[in-house]
Design goal:
Helix content of chain A: 40-55%
CATH superfamily of the largest domain in chain A: Type I PLP-dependent aspartate aminotransferase-like (Major domain)
Largest sheet of chain A: 8 strands, mixed
Number of helices of chain A: 13
Largest interface: A-B, 57 and 57 residues
CATH topology of the largest domain in chain A: Aspartate Aminotransferase, domain 2
Number of strands of chain A: 13
Structural class of chain A: alpha/beta
CATH class of the largest domain in chain A: Alpha Beta
Oligomer: homodimer
Shape of chain A: globular
Radius of gyration of chain A: 23 Å
């Protein structure tokens, strides 16, 4: 394979002609495919269908302490749900609060409450001239949207396969009291699928924040979302590390069952120190009379325990592993050695991160759209939607079926090639 | 019956001795009863148990537009849920957004968002020197807690059987741009069970607010919660009235199925103008990926339509009507003519409002607690927990069974008598 950058203008023009024809052929097919969001496929939803049968009209709907889950009460979660989510989160059930159906909602509310009421007695952020969040990039677009919504200044932190650039994190967190948080997806990160190394987690735990209300937003969305049985990433447990480092209150750990049971109909949880959870409880008792305990009970009776969750996740893995492999195969076959793109090979999570040549991501995504394949918007993986190199594209392979995914991936590589050739011809 | 106020000191002392003995006898029983919160009784929860069976492991879980309710999507509610909650709210489904399990949570979030982002482009309230809410009193404690939490100044508005004192509301709303809202439970109000008259609703619709971002928080929590088939209160539909009066954006109408299906596991909704709902959608799309659509589907398939809801509510009424009657019977038998208390006789809702002699409410609730009967805290029905006359007590008759309720009501009347005698002896 000859690298595109080594081709002559004539070679590029000939290649472009060929690719233009391929692209026209694809457009003529009138495809309508979606690789944009981290949505489970229908077959993944089917494996949780028995959850619909665990609570019946004649079931005992009391939790283990005898509280009737059909009525008001137990605002911070039934004990068995705390135990289950505690096991998933690798923390003691006492360090867990169970919330509603969306951990994103809890993150939003946490930022909102920090704005209006401050964190554990500190000045409300809305009274400060400037509040900043560190944003490892590329990252999760919905995290960035929350901090943007509240007018929080976002600072890009480059990601590496070991996690965020910790030199930069340490410097900014220790020197600037306006830095109040950092968004992290520490395991099978969105979008690269990287897992923070042991050293990275330890350096996080040993941060010396200038701001007493600095918090690590540790969105452990993919903690049990392995693709392989034998070859899994391991993430050091952060609460414990923070406590050992004398920073027990520095982290909020978020989790949910959205991509374990049903997206939108799962349960979410926060793991944190008692002091942090007491701070959460203060506003929770004003905000709501309580969350959906029947759904908590439904989850516990279906999964039973962590072993049940792992068994269930193996079924998910069996369904999505071929999709990740298919995309990787097509990318490898079509792009390897051409010097026009690199991509990650995650062992879990929901995404593959693709790096095109500089200045090509928007053009690739636009071409894919033109050809009937919806990708996550170029730039979405960066704060303010601004990818400084215009090179990152998030690939979400789970939602389409294998046949659709194969088509979509084939369209994608043609778009990558065409946009790259056009870029090189521009130069 | 002789009025207590007409008794001589000797008569009062003799009475006190008798009541002290009764109170001692009650305490000796070691009761543990609860008339504090508007919780449905267990028998009421039982009538919704078939809801557990409507979604099964082999059910089609698509909504009527073909969207799979198990997956992400449709953030503002599936069409059939909008239709059902629209019917309950008496508005067009286009004027409905479906939320999660708690309308209180939506009210909290609405105030929170008004604080940080403002209402429909107006200045965020956190940037204003002063924000005020009008609070018809006695009213719902959890409303007042929300505005207190956000540092909003609350102004008491006396309630009448026709609704809030509208002269006062009109004056304050039209003269003071700091008045941004009013809390209303317009039908079978909490705690009196009053329903706003047609004139009151029309005067609300014709308000001329000084503040462009003034909103009526119309918490229609008990819209279908009648006690009687034949003798029901009627409430004029406020959205329509506001539109006719040229104030289409002036009201948020909240509702939920908390006391229709299962408290904590129901679905909530907001009805409002398109402009207001678009304002809601702006933050919703940042706050969450969506609410629990399976629970929406579960509700629609169980209730089917408004007729199904009404049929279901008749079952609730059959269970709680005797409780309201029992309390009223005991209060009438024991207190009528004594001049030491008055109470409401609601035709729906969840509460009876009791007015003791001035300065007695705290003492009555304290005595009841001493005797093993938990009541809503005295003062809770007023902003900041401060009942200026110390006379209002909210009675919640639904949760105890009839036998417990009878015991609790009997304890209550003894406490009322004893506290009243003690008050008169003090004078």
């Amino acid at each position: 394979m000859k690298k595109y950058s080594e081709m002559s203008r004539e070679e590029l023009l000939a290649l472009k002609k060929e690719l233009d024809q391929q692209f026209a052929d694809i457009k003529a097919q009138g495809l309508s495919l979606d690789m944009s969001r981290g949505k489970p496929g229908m077959d993944q939803l089917d494996i949780s269908m028995e959850m619909m049968d665990v609570l019946k009209g004649d079931s005992d709907l009391k939790c283990e302490t005898g509280v009737d889950c059909r009525n008001y009460g137990v605002p911070d979660g039934i004990p068995e749900a705390k135990r289950l989510l505690g096991a998933i989160s690798e923390v003691d059930p006492d360090n867990i609060i169970i919330f509603g159906n969306s951990s994103l909602n809890v993150m939003f509310d946490t930022v909102a409450r920090s704005m209006t009421h401050g964190v554990m007695g500190n000045t409300p952020w809305c009274k400060l001239d400037k509040v900043k969040f560190l944003c490892p990039v590329p990252g999760y677009d919905r995290h960035f949207k929350i901090t943007e919504f509240f007018g929080i200044e976002m600072i890009n932190i480059p990601m590496t396969p070991e996690g965020p650039d910790m030199d930069m994190v340490e410097k900014l967190v220790s020197e600037d009291a306006a830095v109040k948080g950092i968004w992290c997806v520490p395991k099978y990160s969105n979008p690269q699928g990287y897992t923070y190394s042991e050293e990275t987690v330890k350096r996080f735990a040993h941060l010396k924040p200038a701001a007493p209300d600095f918090r690590i937003y540790w969105d452990n969305a993919y903690s049990v979302h392995h693709l392989y049985d034998e070859d899994q990433d391991f993430l050091l447990e952060i609460l414990d590390e923070c406590a050992k480092a004398g920073n027990p209150d520095m982290v909020y750990k978020f989790t949910s069952t959205s991509k374990i049971s049903f997206p939108g109909s799962g349960i979410a949880a926060v793991a944190a120190s008692k002091a942090n959870l007491d701070d959460f409880r203060k506003y929770m008792q004003i905000q709501t009379i309580g969350h959906d305990k029947l759904n908590q009970l439904r989850h516990v009776r279906f999964f039973k325990d962590l072993a049940g969750v792992h068994e269930h996740m193996r079924k998910h893995a069996a369904l999505i592993r071929p999709k990740f492999q298919l995309v990787d195969d097509i990318l490898t076959r079509e792009l390897d050695g051409l010097g026009i793109g690199e991509w990650t090979k995650p062992k879990g999570g929901y995404f593959i991160s693709f790096e095109s040549m500089e200045g090509c991501a928007k053009a690739i995504v636009a071409k894919a759209k033109e050809a009937g394949v919806v990708m996550t918007g170029a730039g979405a993986t960066y704060p303010y939607g601004k990818d400084p190199k215009d090179s990152n594209i998030r690939i979400a392979p789970t939602y389409p079926d294998l046949k659709e995914l194969e088509e979509a991936a084939k369209v994608f590589v043609v778009c990558v090639k065409l946009a790259s050739v056009e870029k090189l011809l521009e130069a």
